[in-house]
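Dear colleague,

Following up on yesterday's call, I've attached the two folding results inline so they're easy to grep. Please treat them as preliminary; we haven't cross-checked anything against experimental data yet. The first protein's sequence and structure tokens come first.
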Amino acid sequence: MSGLRDTAVEALDATGASAELAALACEIAEHDRRYHGKDDPTISDADYDALRRRNLAIEQRFPELVRDDSPSLRVGAAASSKFAKIRHALPMLSLDNAFSDEDVADFAKRVRRFLGLGEDDLLAITAEPKIDGLSLSLRYEDGRLVSAATRGDGAVGEDVTANALTIADIPHRLAGIRPSVFEVRGEVYMTHADFAALNARLATAGALAPADATETAGEDDEGAQAPDEAAPDGAIGEETSAASSLKIRQFANPRNAAAGSLRQKDPAVTRSRPLRFFAYAWGETSELPGETQTEVVEALGRMGFSTNAVPQNGRSAPLMRRLETVDGLIEHYRLIEAERAHLGYDIDGVVYKVDDLALQRELGFVSRAPRWAIAHKFPAERATTVVREIVINVGRTGKLAPLAKLEPVTVGGVVVSNVTLHNEDYIAGRDADGEPIRGGRDIRIGDTVEIQRAGDVIPQVVDVVLDKRPPTAEPFRYPDHCPICQSLAVREINPRTGRPDSVRRCTAGLTCPAQGKEGLKHFVSRHAFDIEGFGETYVEALFEAGLVRQPADIFRLGTEPLQAAIAEHHRALRDQREETEDTLRAAQGLAPKPRGKRKDYDYSTVTQNLLAAIDARRTVALERFVFALGIPEIGETSAKALARHFEDVRALMDGVAAARDGQPGEDWAELSALRGIGDSTFERMLAIGAAKAAEADWNPLRDAEIALKSNQRVALRERYGEDGAGLRAAIAQAAAQAPGKGFLKLTSDGEIGTVATLSLIHFFEEAHNREAVEALLDAGVSTTNERAAPPPVSSPVAGMTIVFTGSLEKMTRDEAKEMAEKLGAKVAGSVSKKTDLVVAGPGAGSKLAKASEFGIEVIDEDAWFARIGRAGGEAGSTSGG
């Protein structure tokens, strides 16, 4: 997908746009989940905003391709399963972003144009800081707080009422007016001083705790859970006190600290944290105490809330202002930006809102955001420091990820000592297409670099200060073998550009120690072997005990060593929990907690249950087996596609061997990937060249049958010379190196493709990967495969291309796709002239309109079941394994 994303939106065709929209929907959903649901973002705000902007640009160019799961239609992420749910009476929407003064001016013009206002007509807009915390909605009935909910996905949030009641800034009863219903919305945050004090307290406790008890702040900081003393079957118990519920770890930033502190199962933990709350908006109300944004926010202050409509932190003027010109908005933005470092809490921009509530209602909403508001984001903060070391980490899929160790430097109030260097091209000063970045300046050990915390989250290197480069600094030599297991590390060839992919991966796969533990977690995960009760905790315990180092070991576990390892694991958890409790008590000046005689439990039942669960998964669907291997680029979709092509594991391995033998040569790959040369032109060149390549005077650059365009001639001349002889030779060599049937069998399947095929080939080229698969088969693991069965000859939809759209009520989207494929149909994600049938549920939108435009038959779910001769109640999942 990186190749597609390098293509300008204007240059995308419908196929490429559809593929990229699907990838963006998945990628943005994962970032939403990590930010809103896990409080653990992995990309910067700026990079996230760039993904959303590209998604929107593609949708605007191809409105018929807008997906049902489009990020432009979604806010936040699904609420966590550990909390009860609250449905918001009115959705908690997000805001569109502005990144320049011109964007702000465009916002004002759009508002005026929508309202029919002239340049001289009054348009008042408020400007206030954009607090960087966790959004919260508080519902008051007759003035009393009855519930508190996080944003969640915008429609449904997490019930954190008990925790919100512990925050001093949140009144239990409203002062002054008390409407029958009033929802107050704002941001839970933590000041810089309180954040530093919290981290110092955790650091003090962590210094006294065992090394393995200290972690990096991530999702939230719920307590380290351990087996309940009254549950010898291994059930997991809840935390019992604020002390026992605190893991000893530090937070990355105040936003994570605030979010993790609020989203606690034990309100006592939240009470112990210095959380604060700013109110700036509202949801459902029975009456509004004002007719403008300014008036209602001022009323929130009178109700007992902290707001930016009144002076804060000793300021003489409020930070929320009502302004009537774009120049006034920009001036106030600059003022807040200048004050940013002195506010005492994190903000990441300024929010502008049309002040008149009647105009807000007239403007309404578009997609996931209101038309009457926008967030003007701050540019990233920067600092300079020195690269002390560059280290290579190896991830679950074998990715060799470079990390720079820095002289610690403070950027925007956060100490940065590590920064990702992304990949070897980034270190060398070039992008994925070989074009220079940072002016072509590479990054070396000893270099002085400029660091940016984009969006105040993830630091990155933005430039190298060459005049400070020491004489001893040498270009970094990126390893071509895994630094852990010494296996070959390769960069796959990008079929679009003909250049190596940006990621280099270890090819050892299942047998690389760096990948082993994480690979095993993937192997037993829900969409892979899905072994009941065999979660990540047991994977780690058995891996550390040396009992499970590769997947086949799981199916060779003996009763006695397994039971001993389980018992030792639970004892260690109990010891760690108690030691953590004592450490925290000591840090607070308290004596250790008295404990009676410890009882060792009989874990035989747990052991037998686990062995039974393992035995039950000795036979799985082939698609699960393939997905479980953790082969880079092989996800669930491509694993299911492979299961359609091969009966079992050995047939798959034979098919991959055939694909390897049928790989195209370098000349074929180079010519086919040359920019400007499309598939049809390439095929014409090869077909004509097969007949004419031996003619010494044949010049393919001027051949009328090939019909090259001017830009294609330029590209070919630049690569192969002016006289046509070089191109003639290249065509002859390419024709002799064309891919074979085994290779084309996989690459021609749109759900597998070239990149995944090459990844399969590299995986099975490594002897230890083949041995690990053979070991699984020798351990008694076998596969079933319903997908490989030929479709029924009598199927009424065999050979048809079908699109499912809208909210399907009698089957899930996956069930619908699987059902159609088993009947011999192809399921597409977008409507085109090649579509034969559209099955539409409630809420179908642009796809339905496109079907009407092309004259494509549209039916509902009942008609679908009638057509395939199946009752609607028989639409359950048919997936194997």
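Below is the second protein, in the same order (sequence, then structure):
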Amino acid sequence: MNVVVVESPAKAKTINKYLGSGYTVLASYGHVRDLPAKDGSVRPDEDFAMSWDVDAKSAKRLNDIADAAKGAELIILATDPDREGEAISWHVLEVLQKKRALKDAKVQRVVFNAITKSAVTEAMKNPRDIDMELVDAYLARRALDYLVGFTLSPVLWRKLPGSRSAGRVQSVALRLIVDRELEIERFRTQEYWTVDADVSAGGDPFNARLVKHEGKRLSKFDLGDETSAFAAREAVKAATFKVAAVEKKPARRSPPPPFTTSTLQQEAARKLGFSAQRTMQAAQKLYEGVDIGGETVGLITYMRTDGVQAAPEALDEARQVIGGLYGREYVPESARIYKTKAKNAQEAHEAIRPTSLARNPGKLRLEGDLGRLYELVWKRMIASQMESARIERTTIDLESADGKTGLRASGQVVLFDGYLAVYEEGRDDPDDEEGGRLPQVAEGAAAKVVSAKADQHFTEPPPRYSEASLVKKMEELGIGRPSTYASILTVLRDRAYVRMEKNRFIPEDKGRLVTVFLEEFFKKYVEYDFTADLEEKLDLVSAGELDWKVLLREFWQDFHAKAEEIGQLRTREVLDALDGALAPFLYPQKADGSDPRVCPTCSTGRLSLKTSRYGPFVGCSNYPECRYTRPIAQGEDAEGQAENGDRELGTDPDTGLVVYLKSGRFGPYVQLGEGDKPKRASLPKGWSAPDMDLEKALRLLKLPREVGLHPEDGQPILAGIGRYGPFVQHNGTYANLSGADEVFEVGLNRAVALLAEKRAGRAGRTESAALKELGAHPGDGQPVRVLSGRYGPYIKHGSTNANVPRGKEPSAVTLEEAVALLAEREAKGGGKKKPARAAKAEPKAAAKKAPAKKAPAKKAAAKKPAAKKAAPKKAKATA
């Protein structure tokens, strides 16, 4: 029996069908080992020794593979054809060797670029050994990412509370987004005008633009105001024109190459609106196989590649399909051969293409994301092997009789559409279109201006990055790998360093702060050139031209020294440096020219950057006498918050107290009156400070609102906004509302229905598995049971839970012991018999106080080491 190891179960099932009964195909389910998310997993002092950990799920799968391997003659490692795939094979082999599962079995490595019978069968005929140079490149990359993340992140937590993590590539990608935002903020709009005319030269009128005025060639900003633009327009109307020149230039547009990982992500973002992660998930399914007519078929080749070349048989098939569907004139004389231009192209894999172009997307009828992405891949591959489009570009120059005024019209006509019949590459700027078709005109012909107009324009800042344009920029700079872009962009969103608006990246305040911190104190390590150079060195490792540990030693020596140096700085020194670097952002110039750092509340204090456990904020130097604070903001938003932070909205007619709009470190809020404990309410998500008025503020301050009485028990149903968002609440049950506005609009019927759904969902939850039935409680006759819970076995009676003592076998617990433990638990306040604080709107108050009564219990101390051990997992750094 031969054992084949692949990554996914879907892949295993398909390959098993191709290979037959003499093979057992097992899945590793991706990576089987990883570096534990704790300090010491990579040890520079031990020549970068690495500790690998196997989780419970992977352990079971490795045991299955080891059991199968013990009786096998041949072990075939058939994981994906890239660095990650090579690494998985290496990990599996390492584990099998440690388990002594190989015995006399022979080990081979095979790779295939597509999951088809022919590709798999051919791969089996050409086995090789594991490529240790690729494995070394993987180990170097993992070690670098780990060392950067677990060195930088703790420095960030100490010096910049509220920050989540930093990573080798993640931080550079974030810097790109922040740098673009700085460009936008520094941009100053400039006015300019254009003059266009509809002109007729003996045929249909066409549009021409003024390019020469008063004998001078116009540049973009020569018509800078309305007066000059209108004067130019009148000159055009008054002039007599003739066609001075007609120039026609034939041109050819060649098709783009088949997809790489990067270009697939870009085009899917432009044309389908897919995120990089969504694209890769759909591509993975298409690669592993889709059920077609009862058979699982791999529809595309491997989707992690920098290569643009295609196999000869794929080129031949493409030419046949093109000739059959579009005609022989659309097939070029010879197949198109593309070469990779990427700065740091990986191993030479094929481009992403259909495994068979005969599978027309219209006939396959795949649904959802798979259908849309497959059609994109199919069209791109077909187009890449089609004839070029033939275009004629035409320019018509018109000149006035006195030679002082000139107009120009540009356009094009497609003489032969070629590949455009199938596919046209998407544009990052949809407005960047070429001119339309022009009529036939004769040189020297008289031309008449039918109408003329002057249009005002303003220059625009560079656009924020979309996923497509950011991926393109990262690839151009040689930052990271296309296969990692999806996870990098996901991490930036998950860390709340950026947000998406209209499919564009906007840096959040914490993302900007992290970037400025790294630029101030770790500048070298977030430089684009440095990161790209490191990628090139990793490529040298994979090519066998550089030892991976030499690379790590060179990097670590300087990086570790820098981290130690910054670690010695006081937090105040760090904040002062950031305050200076961020001054234009934190304290934008005021329209009246006054000092933007003067505190708007006390007028004597100076504003500066401060920090708390929740992160940095701007506060007054006169604290605690002056408690003015505001979140970090910039531009008009900062002005609005500073000026509106303490503005009066009006007087509450019920109490006669003044209602204020204020701005605190956690955002804007409204306040009723002054004093020690005035009533306050934060502005909910979607409500902006500039739009606040007295009516809105009073509605917030009067929450929670009574919706009505519940028809079953006559108890009030309340609507409010709590820690977890808008809700309705009745007798201890909370149900979420769709948004803040619904809090003020929800009616009794809707509230009752939401609460009923919530209770039904709660009732439908499955209880923990019973390990032992102990019998009836002597006090009330209710059952006492030993259950299996998330944190171990526990005893349950009614609403009271008590832990089974550590070291005690759950099956050995007696009813008497259980009753004693339950009584002890209730005495310490551990039961759930306290009345719910239904009228106090937010569930968080009760949640905060509950742990306080557990503090005296000495057993809690025994759990502290476990808690400390788990804490670093939150810090798992991502490149």
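For the second protein, one point worth flagging: The first strand starts at residue 2 and ends at 6.

Best wishes,
A.L.
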